[in-house]
Amino acid sequence: MSAIVAIVGRPNVGKSTFFNRLIQRREAIVDAVSGVTRDRHYGKSDWNGKEFSLIDTGGYVLGSEDVFEKEIDIQVELAIGEADAIIFMVDVETGVTGMDEDVSKLLRKVNKPVFLAINKVDNAQRAADAVEFYALGLGEYYTLSSINGSGTGELLDALVKVL
Ligand code: GDP
Ligand code: MG
């Protein structure tokens, strides 16, 4: 069985853009957890000859901030339970948000490899802006642009090393 990698993070950071760039075959599976149908997409990918399954976590957004935050927590808990490695994606355009801090708090306790992926780093100025994410306390990070593909190779090199 191939390793499972989950992509988590708040909405609009670019999780699906990254996922779609990597997968060769989308498996349209929706799974029911706690009676709520969650938007989770599964796909297969490989890098440097190592195959892995990728989960793009969507979230079931009901409109209320409370439910919204809870949903992200649930997605993170699911990822912690089932994944062999976690990609935690954040957005350099918006910078660090409260939700990023909450997710970091959960991920700092996890005994699995966590890769902090700072997305939307489309140019050098944005690479400089990315340093503020050290404040999340997750250590080293990877900057990337899911739209133009820069930086994705470095992240994947590090990822497949731990799988
Ligand atoms: P998700 O909600 O985390 O799955 O985010 P999406 O993949 O749906 O992307 C949200 C928005 O961010 C879309 O308009 C994307 O085109 C945009 N986006 C994703 N990746 C990048 C990137 O690397 N650079 C820029 N500038 N925009 C991006
Ligand atoms: Mg998405």
TrEMBL record:
Role: GTPase that plays an essential role in the late steps of ribosome biogenesis.
Protein name, per record: GTPase Der
Quaternary structure, from the entry: Associates with the 50S ribosomal subunit.
Binding-site residues for GTP 1, renumbered to this chain: 9-16, 56-60, 119-122
Residues making up the signal peptide according to the UniProt record: none
Parent-record interval covered: 1 to 163 of 434
Family (UniProt): Belongs to the TRAFAC class TrmE-Era-EngA-EngB-Septin-like GTPase superfamily. EngA (Der) GTPase family.
Tree of life domain: Bacteria
Span of domain EngA-type G: 3-163
